[in-house]
Amino acid sequence: MSSSSTKKTFGAVSALVSAAFVLSPAASAQAAVGGDPDSLQSRHPNATCSQTQVPVSVPGVKDGHIYGELCTPRHPNAHSRTVNLLVPGASYDHTYFDFPLKSDKYSYVTQALNAGYSTFAVDRLGTGRSSLPPSDLDTVQNQTEALHQVITRLRAGDAGHRALGTADRHTFSKVVWVGHSLGSAIAWYEAQKHHDVDAFVLTGMRHVPAQASGDSGSEPPQGFIRASDDARLKLKTTDPGYWTTAPGTRQFGFYYQPNADQAVIDKDESLKDLTNKWDLAESATPGLPAAQSPSRAITVPTLLAFGDQDISFGCAATSPTPCTSSAVEKLEKPFYPKADLSVMVVPNSGHDIQLHKNAPQTDDEILNWIRSAAPSH
């Protein structure tokens, strides 16, 4: 397949692509959770970080848990009681927001910690180190309920390490949902059912005409393959309902290559994770009429941020609408009638706005918006 045809077909589908209550800090979490806690802590030397499994109860999933990495500024400040809940998109895990390459540039976690905020980067159900249910049970409804339970535990202090130097649980007074792609669409459903978030940052997701059928069939669409056919992910699952991006397609679907580092694209390919038919079926949701969109339930400040070169949600997706924040805000406002809505158009960026060369500026603008929309007390 030529690069142009790959880009076209992948763009039509990438609309969606995007144990105990408290575990000990990173030094003792490795045995229980897996991975390398020292690597996590070394990337964030000015923070206290821990790896955590948050137990969740969702229909059909026995002993379910959501894996997350909680980082809090080492020295408490005005913002540290506000936590950024980082929810990645389809075929991504928590590393989208804490990219393990040039983390001073490509890690949103690093930027948020530098701004004084706490972060909780999660693997959604069916990805990373979270529970891997049968694909038929890895539905948006179960994803939504699991993340609601995570929010409840964050507020109660039951989702990670205790407050530094005290016997107190590390509770959070405010939760800001920062989603990417599918992680943004899930936010709509969470808000529709639960009102437990103080602000939403929704990246890589807009209301545009449906670009895919939303069919939850048994065959992966073009641009995707069964995970069992992928050289790395076949070791994770043989469930035919779990899919991933085909080799070499992420650079076309997720990046504006003139403003992307090839080393980042290559690392992204090596880190890719799972998606499934239920995730891809959500491709129809952004095309729903405003009166039927679940985003209408959002009542808190909301920032939409997308790359102007995003082939699914960028300016071309709603052409001939001018590529300005004000024009897009006017287009999106009917879908958020109860929210204080802001729009941020990221220049020279594709779908993955946190993984382009201008990511530090992008993250800085997002964090400045959070500071204004969800002020610390």
Sum this structure up briefly:
The protein has twelve helices and eleven strands. The chain is of the alpha/beta class and 377 residues long. The protein starts with a helix and ends with a helix.
Care to describe what's here?
Strand 5 (174-180), helix 7 (182-193) and strand 6 (199-203) form a beta-alpha-beta unit. Helix content is 29%, strand content 18%. It is globular and about 50 Å long. The protein is α/β, with parallel strands linked by helices and 377 residues long. An eight-stranded mixed beta sheet has the order 1-2-4-3-5-6-10-11, with helices on both faces. The chain has a three-stranded antiparallel beta sheet with strand order 7-8-9. The longest helix has 17 residues, at 140-156. It is built from twelve helices and eleven strands. The N and C termini lie far apart (55 Å).
Topology:
Elements: H1 3-13, H2 26-33, H3 37-43, E1 47-58, E2 61-73, E3 82-87, H4 103-106, H5 108-114, E4 118-122, H6 140-156, E5 174-180, H7 182-193, E6 199-203, E7 224-226, E8 242-245, H8 250-253, H9 262-271, E9 275-276, H10 277-281, E10 302-307, H11 325-332, E11 341-346, H12 359-373
Parallel strand pairs: 3-4, 3-5, 5-6, 6-10, 10-11
Antiparallel strand pairs: 1-2, 2-4, 7-8, 8-9
Helix pairs in contact: 2-3, 6-7
